[in-house]
Amino acid sequence: MVDDDLYINEIFKIMNSFYNEDEYYVNMVVAWLFAECFTKQRQKTLEFLNAHRLNKFTINKGISKCRDSFRVSKEDKEMLLKYRQ
C-alpha cells in the first residue's frame, strides 16, 4: 500500500494524526512507517517531510531508520540529516 499513489496521502494524514502521541511504541511504528514510505515513495515523502506535524522524537527516529536502511542511498542519508530536529 505504501508504494501505491492512491493511498500514500492518506497514510501521511494518518501519520500526522499522531502528533501528540506519548507512547513510545506507537511513535516507533510511525517512525518505521515513515522509513518505509521513504523507500517506496521518496519524492512524496520528502514533500511530507517539509510540511509534517510529527513530534520531534518520531521524525528524528524515522530519519534514523532511513539512515540505517540498505535501501536508502548514501546521498539520501546525508540529505536527510538537514531535516533532523
Short description:
The chain is mostly helical and 85 residues long.
Q: What percent of residues adopt helix (DSSP H or I)?
A: 55-70%
Supply the number of structural domains. 1
Largest sheet: none
Task: Write down the secondary-structure element order.
Answer: HHHHH
- What do the pLDDT scores average to? 93
The overall strand count is: 0
Question: How large a portion of the residues is in β-strands, by DSSP E?
Answer: under 5%
Number of helical runs?
Answer: 5
Extract low-pLDDT stretches. Answer: none
Tell me the distance between the termini. 28 Å
Helix/strand/pairing class, anyone? mainly alpha
Global morphology: globular
Rg measurement, Å: 12 Å
Account of the 3D structure:
This protein has about 80 residues and is an all-alpha fold. It has one domain. About 70% of the residues lie in helices and about 0% in strands. The chain has five helices and no strands. The longest helix has 17 residues, at about 25-40. The radius of gyration is 12 Å and the shape is globular. The relative contact order is 0.17. The model has no long low-confidence stretch (mean pLDDT about 95).
